[in-house]
Amino acid sequence: MQGQSQQQAYDRGITIFSPDGRLYQVEYAREAVKRGTASIGIRAADGVVLAVDKRIRSPLMERSSVEKLHKADDHIGIASAGHVADARQLIDFARRNAQVNQLRFGEPIGVETLTKDVTDHIQQYTQIGGARPFGVALIIGGIDADGEPRLFETDPSGTPYEWKALAVGADRGEVRDYLEEHYDEGIDLDDAVGLALSALGSVNDDALRPEAVGLATVGLDDREFSRLADDEVEDYLVDLDLLADEEAAEGDDETGDETTEE
């Protein structure tokens, strides 16, 4: 009985390490991220691309209300996977920090600096009793003041990772394998958009709908976060032969995801 109660304590308490050094609640938070639909980030030579799978649960839902892409500052965008409410809290935190940095120092915040501010905040929730970790992973991408594109991932443990290309959420392993096979460090922004869509298509039977995909870029020319409209996404899908037909679209709407993760 004593061993069983200790196991339950390791399992339920965020401030208690298991004998093998694990925090179970952090691992459960990572599982929540895996339940969210896929998000992809790609660093190009002249910018960064963020792409998300915006799965719609019902044809009655307003598509604009499904938000997985967010503008943190003029030069930084964020994509999320996991619990939507957790993502919204972290993105609000990131936006506040970006504005504070601008007001305090008179310059845009660095991508790495903002990422570490967010992960420091996340880490606090891995050591406070009565709180749970954030069940979300963020992809933070943008252009630094020196003109260098940067791409980072935040983990529920509060650890930042820098990537050339990455995926979070459902099918992460398959998407990452696709990116490892096709990514090239000299890729330009336009080709990076095509690579992101192709990677999403690789786990969606090579059939995507423009309204079910979110795309945003931060280019080196203007250093501005910019969302691609549905017609622009459709043009890319047609060129890549990834555009889903109407029958497939109707079927997807009827069998949409019923979870609270995105």
TrEMBL record:
The keyword Ligase does not apply. This is Proteasome subunit alpha. Keywords: Cytoplasm, Proteasome. GO terms for biological process: proteasomal protein catabolic process; ubiquitin-dependent protein catabolic process. HAMAP family: Proteasome_A_A. The gene is psmA. PANTHER family: PROTEASOME SUBUNIT ALPHA/BETA. It comes from Halorientalis persicus. It holds the Pfam family Proteasome_A_N. CDD domains: proteasome_alpha_archeal (cd03756). It is found in: Cytoplasm. The 20S proteasome core is composed of 14 alpha and 14 beta subunits that assemble into four stacked heptameric rings, resulting in a barrel-shaped structure. The two inner rings, each composed of seven catalytic beta subunits, are sandwiched by two outer rings, each composed of seven alpha subunits. The catalytic chamber with the active sites is on the inside of the barrel. Has a gated structure, the ends of the cylinder being occluded by the N-termini of the alpha-subunits. Is capped at one or both ends by the proteasome regulatory ATPase, PAN. The 20S proteasome core is composed of 14 alpha and 14 beta subunits that assemble into four stacked heptameric rings, resulting in a barrel-shaped structure. The two inner rings, each composed of seven catalytic beta subunits, are sandwiched by two outer rings, each composed of seven alpha subunits. H.volcanii produces at least 2 types of 20S proteasomes: an alpha1-beta proteasome and a proteasome containing all three subunits (alpha1, alpha2, and beta) that appears to be asymmetrical with homo-oligomeric alpha1 and alpha2 rings positioned on separate ends. One of its GO terms (molecular function) is threonine-type endopeptidase activity. Belongs to the peptidase T1A family. Component of the proteasome core, a large protease complex with broad specificity involved in protein degradation. It comes from the Archaea. The formation of the proteasomal ATPase PAN-20S proteasome complex, via the docking of the C-termini of PAN into the intersubunit pockets in the alpha-rings, triggers opening of the gate for substrate entry. Interconversion between the open-gate and close-gate conformations leads to a dynamic regulation of the 20S proteasome proteolysis activity. Residues 10-32 form the Proteasome alpha-type subunits domain. SMART domains: Proteasome_A_N. GO terms for cellular component: cytoplasm; proteasome core complex, alpha-subunit complex.
